Amino acid sequence: QFPSLLRQGQLDEKAAMVLNPVISKLAGKLVVLASASPRRLEILRNAGLRFEVVPSWFKETLDKGLFKAPHEYAVETAKQKALEVARRMPFKHLKTPDMVIGADTIVTVDGMILEKPVDKNDAYRMLSKLSGKEHSVFTGVALVLCHEKENEEVDYQSFEFYEETKVKFADLSESMLWEYINSGEPMDKAGGYGIQALGGMLVEYVHGDFLNVVGFPLNHFCKQLDRIYNHCTSSSDEESLSVCLGQNSSHTPTIPTQPPPNLSTQSSHSPASSAKHNLSSGPRPNSPSASQTHHTQNSPTASPAHKVKRNGGKSEESQSSWMLVNSLSKHTDTREVQDSENTTSPLMTSGGQVIELNVTEQEDSELKKEDLQRIIELMDGFKASKALFTSSKMGVFDLLQTRPGLDAAQVAQELKASVKGTECLLEACVALGLLKSKGRTGQSPMYENTHLATRFLLSDAPLSLQGYIRHCNDTVWPLFSHLESAVQDGSNQREKAFGKKSQDVFQDTYYNSKEVKLRFMNAMHSIAKVTGKAVATAFDLSKFKTACDIGGCTGAMAYEFTKAHPKLSVTVFDLPAVVEMSEHFHPLHTDNRVSFVAGDFFKDELPKADLYILARILHDWPDEKVHLLLSKIADACTPGCGVLLSEIFLDEERRGPSRGLLQALSMSEGKQRSATEYSLLLKSHGFVTAHVKHTANLLDAMLCIKA
Ligand SMILES: C[S@@+](CC[C@H](N)C(=O)[O-])C[C@H]1O[C@@H](n2cnc3c(N)ncnc32)[C@H](O)[C@@H]1O
Known about the structure:
There is one protein chain. By secondary structure, the chain is α/β, with parallel strands linked by helices. Helix content is 38%, strand content 18%. Helix 2 crosses helix 8, helix 11 packs across helix 14 and helix 20 packs parallel to helix 21. It is globular, with a radius of gyration of 29 Å. The termini are far apart. The protein binds S-adenosylmethionine (SAM). S-adenosylmethionine (SAM) binds next to helix 20. Keywords: Hydrolase, Methyltransferase, S-adenosyl-L-methionine, Signal, Transferase. Pfam families: Dimerisation, Maf, Methyltransf_2. This is Acetylserotonin O-methyltransferase-like. Homodimer.
């Protein structure tokens, strides 16, 4: 491809010299493009780069007002896109890329950023702004390098740069404008045009990198790679690269989601951008000289590295491919600038030569493959769940924690199970990222827990989810096996699943036998321990001195509240059947700020408190019962008292999160609600919603105050 690029006048001789060695430096590395733009894909593929496409889920919602210059916005967006993918892959795809490429292209004219037109009139508005004028196309690019360390931590370091190209449109007559708009091409393109297709006819001149207008500044990218890999690694070994990239140095542990302006230039502390390696010798992107430069070839900046713990096991060749690409069809870059859906899209070279880019056929087959993978992932989901439930119930993770390195036959012997079955189960666990297989004794691999298993699947881990997993296996699984008839009759499936009628799920199903009760309490306990801290610290609760955790079960949530708020005492209020067993769950060291009162929250008087906690209570009940409970709480409250509600909040269109909607499939009387629905229920009892917080944890939270 290089000769044709040279013919386009994109690359000078010197740059071309460095291209092949640079691209070949990436051979054998996992390079990921965090963009679904077919144009970018095409440009990079033509350059001979081998990479995977994992479109970023980063929503392009950065506040443009925070940035001094448009290119800073593009660079920051590119960086956030790349970082999102770099951070997601070790968890979702169970593999850590070596490099993630993020890019964002914007069109600016008269100090305005033009996004994608929403309709034909909007396209007309944009194109008439561009008519007869010169405008700028900026592409911000971030190259995030990931370095996986021994302890399963991943270091991230971002190198950023941008390219500006000036484009002048001819004077466009009304008829020409409308003809172009009616071609449909302007939609889905920032600035409302695609230079590589019909939009090329509107262009009088292009000053700068043409491919930058298409969507990716290839030349600048190659120079940047050269700086990173050739200059940094003149001794050409990986170790010097590590040093060069600052991987042995201190790192910034957090990644801002709403970064301050110029974040991309706050890199001077990073060893990678130090003068020693001369990575930031050019004008800074936000420096006056840089912002005034046309066709900018500014040097990149290297942002501080970020350190993130990865939870999943290391990817292995054997891992099922269906896990590797997640939800691609749902989440694609939505504001790529010069994308075209055309099946062939001619690129004009300066010599008038036409290069046919048959991209979309290839794209199509890739997208179809991803669609297929997504469907297979959904079809196989139950197998993965059951493999997790079974290995957890049989004690695989506890065993391998005390005796890491056992092979399948040894595990089978300890678990009193068949060798063949155990072998299959262990291999499946490796594929799911729950176990790692290491070394070999003769023919048999030796197994040990991954970080994920150690953290959540051991019975004595502080954040153990074993209790909840057991509940899913023994209670939720049988309910889901009757889903079809549940949907058909809209009835409670408990009788079919457990052979007993039930009016009140707690009293009639869970608390009928001691074994089922303890299982349920264990399940609640494990989830409360994982979510409790995020809920307890979601809001400033310093004005409350006493709280009552309504339906507080084992007290796990109450203990998290007292830990987070040293002046708060919490009374746990739950059914007598629960309170009598609660002492089994008390932590070893407490300071008596958690107490238990037995009662029925629909019938009995509630303990007095300044704050009532309702964690995972209201979703179990229909509106009438919710009103009954809220009216009792309202009666117990004086003005200024609070209700802290914690549930999964559905989004307002009830399209997610899927966790909430899937849970609703096995619920009988209750229902999942949005934050607004909860807020309205509380409002009808005199509570004003003060704050809503979507925690990054399993439960969201809302604080309401009695007016
Ligand atoms: C889904 S669990 C939530 C437990 C706890 N709040 C948490 O987040 O971990 C519902 C709790 O409400 C309690 N509960 C159900 N009906 C009750 C009633 N009528 N009176 C008191 N507690 C009740 C159950 O015993 C159970 O502990």
